[in-house]
Amino acid sequence: MHRSRMTAAFAAVALTGLALAGCSSSSNGSGSSGAKVSYMTWETTTTNAALDATMKKFEKSSGITIERDPAPNSDYAQKLASLILSKKAPDFFWCTTAEAQNLASEGLLYDWSSKLDSGDGLKSSGFAPGSLAMWKTTDGKLAGVPTLANTYGFFYNADTFKAAGLDAPKIGWTWDDLYSDIAKLKEKNPSSTPLVNQWPLLDSIQGASAYSVANGGKPFVDSFVHATRVQADSTFKAGTQKFVDAIKAGQMTNPDYDATNAMAAFSNGSIPLMFGGQWLQNFISPNKPKFNWGFAPWPVGSKANVQPIEANGVCSPATLKNPDAVWKTISYMDTTGFNDAMKKEPVAPIAYTAGSKGYYAALAANGDAASASIAATAKYELGAKQKFITQFLDAWSTKAGDIGTTSWNPMLEGKTSLDAGIASTVSGIKGLIKK
Amino acid sequence: MTSVAARNVRSSFSQRVPIVVSRIAWYLLCSLLAVSMLLPLVWMLSIALKSNGDINQLPPTFFPKEFQWSNFVTGPNMIDFYRLLLNTVIVTVLSTVGAVISSMVVGYGISRIEFPGRKLWFALISGSLFVPGIVGLIPLQHLYISLGLIDTWVPLILPAFFGSPVFVFLARQYYQSIPRYLDESALLDGAGHWTIFTKIMLPITKPVSITIAIMSFQFAWNDYLNPLVYLQTGSKFTLSLGMASFLGDTAGSQYNYYMATNLLFMLPPLILFFLAQRYFMEGIGSLGTISK
Amino acid sequence: MTRATIESMPAPPARTLARGRVRSPGLSAKKRRDALAGYLFISPAIIGLVLFVGYPMVTSLYHSFTEWNGLTPAKWIGFDNYVEMFTTDPKFWPSIEVTLLWVVISVPATIAAGLALAVLVNRSLRGVKLFRTIFYLPVVLPAVAVLTLWKYIYDPTYGLANQVLRALHLPTSMWLGDSHVALASVLIVGVWGVGGTMIIFLAGLQAVPVELTEAGKVDGAGAVRRFVQITLPMIGPILLLQLVLQLNGAFQTFTQVAILTKGGPGTSTDLLMYKIYSDGFANFIASPNLGYATAEVWVLFLIVMIVTFGMLRLTRGRFSAGGEA
After folding, report:
1. What is the pTM of this model?
2. What DSSP assignment string belongs to A9-54?
3. Minimal Cα distance from B51: which residue of A?
4. How high is the ipTM of this complex?
5. Average model confidence (pLDDT) for chain A?
6. Fewer CB within a 10 Å sphere, N or C end of chain C?
């Protein structure tokens, strides 16, 4: 009766469930002529769709079957680890420089250096200066291939600058320009904070280090990965002091600032200067700001021009079975693939210069001054000869972040003295390097 | 004891006004609190109806510019909603069945059968509540990988069949409130424990079974961490995992699709709770008779 | 005439001789059957304890003494993780402080709020069933969606919280952006979602025999006195249960911090459970630290055990069911 019907229903569901539960992932090699290559990204659904479209073209021309494994954007690392552990990692997958360096040091990645040196496909000379270097391990292996490169700069409200009698920031502007601008803007509107840090790079340890190098000093660590020496010379200290002063004077937001709504506030015209990555353009443009705006690069110092480099890339597991087909696919993606995809969904320029055409074309197609300035700044930053890394790449980077939170940031906020903050930061990082 | 005559006395006017005032005050207070509880739900609806440009508007307007009801179709479509829904239903129903069966069986054993070590095992089961769940994350993941059970639903469903401490505790408490003479008379009639359990206890303990079913359903339905760790193929994802693709760290979140899909996502547990509320209260009511 | 001797008398039943210590075969068989049945019935829980509790605990204890990235074999380093935790980790002691502070303020707050709400809806007025359901609603809503909304409510410029304050001409706050207010802001969200606790207390209140409170009324006790001296002792066991459960839950608070504040500003909301996640899981491919995070889990576990048992000791005998007084 009632109970037996319920039991029957449960049994049906149970059987179906158990049958499906036992199913392993779809079988490989379903009879296609060529090889099969799988890959995984952390991009949004729309960007993924654009990638799928261009990969379809590649499938036709190469005879290789391409399959994209889905992954959530957040918790991508969990997914990746689970796949690596169960030896089911895709043939190539999105990863950051730090992840690649660490996985390579654990022996889990395929070394692409021989393929790159052979020149068949991508060529070393085709990469933006400094981008390939961070992907090489200390023993000369190539942990992965750089792809999407982020650039960091200043979104500016040109009208607000004009109203304050200032020149808008432009390519080649200096640190002194930056500081005098925000001081003037603060004077004009004392209740506002002229410079909003949407991304915590400007006044970070790396930012201070970049200031130091650009103004004749030494960098904070002597190598971008597996550094052996830490130093904070007088130029570094001077640069940090400038950050502290600007924050104290209310000209720049402090590290605790919650930047969730910064893009929307900028679009409304209430923020004169916002520091962030070029991808923020995708949040500002749809809001159709009613003022003239643009994107200016990292400032130049008195002695040198140092620009940030942050290229994400793709890595392959050490157990890779079909390197030829995968290399072909990666070569396609880093050129034609991204040209197509970025044309549809302009997320970022590409570390391989030939692959950036699509991104710049998409920006040019917008036809407005803002897009043009973004393209120009991105080109300028990527092309700069001297670069600095935007984060620590070693395995102790999380702990370095902790030191940032407990020693560096309180100093920026004025809670501890400059010397105390720098000293404890230096000793903290020194302690991490020792291990 | 004194009689209840006091109630039959007609209260004078000076007694009735405070009663009326206090009642109004009560309704006012409850309504205020109810509004604060309902506000997020209404707000979710408002966000769900906004268009892509609208969600980034500042200051955020409460009412969407246009009521984009299509979000309730577009959003789910972007993540293959119905397939994930089926997956979630299967996993949740199986987990719930396992949870109810195992906790009722274990609860009966712990509460109705005298055996040596009973108190110790109950203490251990209750004590396992304190072990942080995160302890099991990596070891179990490795275990399932070595058993070849990764990327299946087995890791999601299996634990439910082994008696979760909360549910066992709840079941045991409810059992304690059932008079012992039922067991004793059945035993005298020569019934074994399994017969007593299935023929006598199960029908009587329906309220707590339903409570456990509701709580287990809610937990399994909303579970995000376990599917994240154990499932790799997109077509096997559950809804909670599939919806995470709307939220991005650097890439920005599509809140309108996310909220629309969320509203659909939370309907089943909500409806279940509404329908089974009475049993739920009865089942929890067993905690009112706790004696330590 | 035969003499009755001791030997010729029939032996008395063994039972009385041995003063009942010798048992007849029938009883011990039942006890054996019961033991078998008992263990059979609870066998799922035993297996569950071994597999899902014991095994992870043993392996995690082992891993806490290693350096491990989760992908390649672990490397034994002895007590290094624990030493680092207590001496060089700059966020550890702040996290302990914040966690203890959080427990001290949130457990009494949520219990009091749950009890207060339960008392509020413990009436038979019309519409009370609807109110009960509405108050329980936050528990059923998906946590991530709700917390995302709360983050918005707390936005200093555009959020509802400050808009209400501005409308009432009260000073506004930075809420989650103010290191002195952030923890309290997270607490408010917790109190808002106290419906689950409310339902349990409600069940307990409804189990209080109404004759007791009526008797109190007749004896002239006011509502407050009635509550404190009659109702409260009657729900003693539930109170204790809630105390233990809330304590455990408070120590393991994670999702609210992960979505609302990510431990910030600074370390003002860096609860230990969240710290464990950000140390071991947030960035663990680029910066693996699983052995260390596992050590932290054990420290958390030990703290919870100590505090819970300490509390149980302190309240021993005070929370037994009312009628015994």
Report:
1. 0.85
2. HHHHHHHHHHHHHH--SPPS--S-SS-EEEEE----HHHHHHHHHH
3. A286
4. 0.83
5. 89
6. N
